[in-house]
Design a protein that fits this description.
It comes from Cryptococcus amylolentus CBS 6273. This protein is α/β, with parallel strands linked by helices. The chain has 23 helices and eleven strands. It is globular and about 100 Å long.
Length: about 675
């Protein structure tokens, strides 16, 4: 399991649960230029890095200080980039406490009476932060590491077989003619028939997992690029123009800024972090002609008002419009309430034709008419044959030339199912929200019911986004004090393009912790296309952090959180078509949960044949881990008591010693 770099959060900062919605480190900014509205995106600046990155390389250019101009930043070119910031995992020197004696002070370097020097105090061990499951642990194991099974065709009847034999030479001639037409079409559109190459990945013949019942699940899930067909680099080799958009979450009332400070978890922060992840990816590939545009979108308010503000901010910058429409790949990074806003924003951009997919040819045509063509203009609605050809071959045309664009969204701690239910019943927080906060804060609690109007509108937008093959990463935080894990992972939603991951704060949990492994196991089930029987929903409340914690804000401090979305877009294939619709299971946070349902959930998962076939090692580790787990809180102790039966009987029946026979008595 790949570990993540430790977070750089200040330990003394405890701004409360409302501060954690928007908290982030300072020092990352994008240079603002008053000429952002001109130039058409052809001239760009440099991506600004932290000061640590500037000190490591004296040859890099130091960024100019941020201006006070409120105009939008210009698109950014990365043809010349400063080096990336140094790894945060490097050991840091800590001050050594002075040694104390009997009424006198002794330094560590001063010898004692017996001539031996005092030992140096040991530095406390720092647990690394984790993002699990990683891309490799999800795509390099069954069922995603297996080739897609061919669709089974119904057996032909004897009558149909006889008719097929009667065609004879005419059928053979027609078949050759279609092959010739297909070869000519492939030559014209530049799309070669799929064939196995030396770079293709093959199934691991020694893999024993998933050969039985597990082979029947996950058939519509994306696979790693190059598995069986094509090359391992086909997902990114034609990408040279990338646009990164950042959308911040909900900000508290400005009257509280004098107490908790200015919010720093901004759109600029998210755009910079995603930009670093993209640049790191292409630097490892040796690509030096990447054009990267950062597009931080700012605006506060309710969800509908924010969508309007952000879309107007995008339209007010011609450079952003030009770069977005000419991009090969587009990334959206959002946090908390911004995840809902970003989903509506992507849906509007697709409907207006600013983002090109395989299903919005007519919208793209209208956008081309309004803003001008950029490459291959999709055919109009009056020519269905040409439109079908465009949709069929647009995947082989780069996005910069008018082809289909690659789009991914990173949703960090999104309020898909609202905040924690305990917050909505708190006698301390509710008066604050009622008297001091605006309607945007109260609107978040409406997502606790999937039948509410705001939730239904969000579900329609998400369904439209997934239908257009936008890939979504749902990242939850283990000790989130605001959003439950079941809400951030949208546990009641099912779709092949949804990829779930969990951020684990090393200061709160370890990789060997039973609860961490159990939640990781539940996420592995969902990523494999298996229902978790609402296991995550029953475990979320027990892992929630304190209201003064920082679990809601720490995920966007880790670069690996953003790298997961980059790998998912460039290393994963599209899902099998036709895509199934988004499925939402009804949910209401106010519904009472039966505590005795948890043992039955685990019993159903442990005994499921596909689970035993795909995850034998994980089941064994969980059965052994529950025995040695030492929970501290009362809630976790109750969970252990309910889950202990999954370990089985620890003592076996022993045979009775040989007793004398009745004949010898």
């Amino acid at each position: 399991m790949r570990t993540c770099k430790p977070s750089g959060m200040e330990k003394g900062d405890r701004g409360g649960w409302w501060r954690s919605l928007s908290r982030g480190p300072k020092g990352l900014w994008v240079e603002k230029d008053g000429k952002a509205g001109s130039g058409g995106g052809e001239e760009g600046g440099e991506v600004d890095m932290p000061e640590e990155a500037q000190k490591t390389d004296p040859d890099t250019l130091a960024p100019a200080p941020p201006t006070h101009d409120d105009t939008a930043p210009t698109p950014i070119s990365t043809t010349e980039q400063p080096s990336l910031p140094p790894s945060k995992s490097e050991p840091q020197t800590t001050p050594k406490p002075p040694a104390s004696g009997r009424g006198c002070r002794a330094s560590p370097n001063k010898a004692t009476k017996n001539g031996s020097a005092l030992p140096h105090p040991l530095a406390p061990s720092v647990q690394p932060n984790l993002v699990i499951n990683t891309f490799a642990t999800t795509f390099d194991r069954p069922p995603r590491s297996f080739l897609l099974l061919p669709p089974t065709s119904p057996p032909s009847s004897p009558t149909a077989t006889a008719k097929q034999e009667q065609k004879g030479l005419a059928a053979t001639t027609t078949g050759y003619a279609w092959k010739v037409f297909g070869a000519v079409g492939s030559y014209v559109y530049g799309e070669a028939p799929p064939k196995t190459t030396s770079e293709s990945l093959n199934e691991d013949e020694g893999e024993t997992r998933g050969r039985g019942e597990g082979r029947k699940v996950g058939g519509d899930l994306p696979r790693r690029v190059g598995l069986g067909v094509g090359g391992a680099h086909d997902g990114w080799k034609n990408v040279r123009r990338v646009v990164v958009a950042g959308v911040h979450g909900w900000f508290p009332a400005k009257m509280s800024n004098s107490i908790i400070g200015e919010p720093t978890g901004t759109s600029v922060k998210f755009a910079n972090m995603m930009g670093q992840a993209v640049k790191q990816f292409f630097d490892e590939k040796g690509v030096d002609d990447l054009r990267l545009t950062l597009m931080p979108l700012e605006g506060e308010g309710t969800i509908d008002s924010r969508v309007d503000k952000l879309y107007k901010a995008y339209l007010s910058n011609p450079a952003w419009i030009n770069d977005l429409r000419r991009a090969d790949a587009i990334f959206f990074a959002a946090h908390s309430q911004g995840c809902i806003v970003t989903t509506h924003l992507i849906s509007r951009m697709i409907a207006q034709g600013h983002i090109r997919t395989s299903h919005n040819a007519e919208a793209v045509s209208r956008c081309e008419w309004a803003f001008g063509p950029i490459g291959v203009v999709p055919p109009s609605s009056s020519s269905p044959h040409r439109r079908h050809s465009y949709e069929q071959h647009s995947s082989s045309i780069p996005g910069a030339e008018g082809g289909k664009q690659k789009v991914a969204m990173l949703s960090m701690c999104g309020v898909h199912l609202g905040p924690l239910y305990s917050i909505s019943t708190s006698s301390v927080i509710q008066p604050y929200l009622q008297w001091f906060e605006n309607a945007a804060a109260r609107e978040l609690f409406e997502f606790q019911d999937t039948t509410s109007p705001v939730s239904l509108a969000y579900q329609r937008a998400l369904a439209m986004v997934l239908e257009n093959e936008v890939r979504v990463v749902l990242l939850a935080s283990l000790n989130d004090q605001v959003v439950p894990i079941y809400g951030a992972s949208f546990s009641c939603a099912t779709h092949p393009l949804l990829l779930r991951a969990l951020y684990v704060d090393g200061a709160s949990y370890t990789q060997s912790d039973f609860m961490t492994n159990l939640l990781c196991f539940a996420f592995m089930l969902r990523n494999a296309g298996i229902d978790d029987e609402r296991l995550v929903e029953h475990l979320s409340e027990a892992t929630a952090g304190g209201l003064t914690g920082l679990g809601h804000s720490t995920p966007y401090e880790e670069l690996s959180s953003f790298s997961l979305a980059v790998n998912y877009l460039f290393y994963a294939t599209p899902a099998r078509k036709p895509l199934p619709p988004l499925q939402i299971e009804p949910f209401n946070a106010r519904d009472a949960r039966n505590d005795f349902e948890l043992p039955w959930i685990m019993r159903a998962l442990v005994d499921a044949p596909e689970v035993k076939d795909l995850f034998p090692g994980e089941l064994k580790d969980l059965k052994e881990g529950i025995v040695h787990w030492k929970p501290v809180t009362r809630t976790l102790k109750d969970i252990k008591r309910r889950l202990e039966p999954m370990a089985g009987r620890q003592s076996r029946l022993r045979p009775l010693p040989n007793s004398p026979s009745s004949a010898s008595l």
